[in-house]
Amino acid sequence: MKLRHLISAKDIFDRPFIEELFKEAAEMEKRVERGVLIKDCEGKILAALFYEPSTRTRLSFESAMQRVGGSVISAENAADYSSAKKGETLEDTARMVSSYADVIVIRHPEPGSAARLASVAHVPVINGGDGSGEHPTQALLDLYTIQKELGRIDTTTIAFVGDLRYGRTVHSLLHLLPLFRAVQVLLVSSPELRLPEEYRTALQKHNVAFEESSDLLSAVQKSDVLFVTRIQKERFPSEEEYKKLKGSYTIDDRTLAALKKTAIIMHPLPRVDEIAREVDKDPRAAYFREAKNGVFIRMALIRSILT
Ligand code: NCD
User: Fold this and answer.
1) Tens of pLDDT along 229-284?
2) Which of 103, 172, 256, 269 allows an S-S link to 139, with CB 3.0 to 4.6 Å?
3) What element of type H or E holds 249?
């Protein structure tokens, strides 16, 4: 299977594609560690068009592109410093950037923006996060992390905690779980931040077992993966509504005491106050390892799209 664009995790409907990508990512990691120069994408250019803040996604894409031999052009504050500020439409920007680069990564506050860009771009488009929609490359690196840390994805119990309503990383990862066997999903959130219906319907349709609850501790006891998310402040209609829900779930030493010895804690980062700093030293805290995996997965992905 060859991807043209990667807009939604639903574009990946095939487990062999994921397995091949993971093999490639592991190979990329080995080569980076040994200092082997990779030149597969020499002469190719990646454009990073970022209309929303980002540290990991943009820098790891840029690092990944350079590590496979390509180069990068970047608009890191595109809402203020690109021609969008002058009123240019996303579609017009896409047409232009298509002639400057061989692949475009876009992050934008509106759901559906990456699809709009892809509909007019002449080169592959990768969604680096479209508002509260999706973040498919994060889902790939998250799955890769689970596979690497636990040795399997099949038969795992994964608890998603926090902002399931606006959290695009959760949305994309849930779309990929039907590709695996006997995965159990626990959805832990306040009623206001419940997983939107379209994702619950998709889980049902694909026979992925899931339970919703607001009880963190009982989910923690059953989990192999505790996937914690930040409350997405920037998506709330008002600051007051955000403040009401801020800090509703916190992972700390008490949570660790209830967590299986073999489980891991993940978080797409950045964290605010949902994971206490004391958790970082526990070997089950996998979030910094997870972020590192992003470079290798993105190297493998860029190679698979461009070569
Ligand atoms: C996430 C995002 O931007 O959706 N960060 C990331 O890409 N690693 C999560 C978040 O902002 O909470």
Assistant:
1) 999 999 999 999 999 999 989 999 999 999 999 999 999 999 999 999 999 999 99
2) 172
3) none
Instruction: Please give the number of the atom of ligand 1 that sits closest to the Cα of 128.
Output: 7
Residues 80 and 221 in one domain: no
DSSP tag of 6: B
Report yes or no on whether pTM surpasses 0.70: yes
| Residues 129-158 pLDDT 10s | 999 999 999 999 999 999 999 999 999 999
- Give the CB-side neighbour count of residue 200, counting CA atoms within 13 A: 10
Residue 4 maps to a domain: no
Q: For strands 71-75 and 45-50, give the pairing.
A: parallel
- Rg (the chain; Cα; Å): 19
58 is a catalytic site residue: no
* Cα 137 to averaged position of ligand 1 atoms, centre (Å): 11
Pair 165, 195: CB distance under 8 Å: yes
Residues 147 and 30 in one domain: no
The total of other beta-carbon atoms located within 10 Å of residue 274's CB is 20
Q: Are residues 204 and 300 located together in one domain of the fold?
A: no
| Whether 181 is catalytic | no
Residue 100 belongs to domain spanning: 9-134+294-306
Together in a domain, 33 and 63: yes
In a domain, 128, yes or no: yes
Assign residue 185 the CATH number of its domain: 3.40.50.1370
Q: Is 175 one of the catalytic residues?
A: no
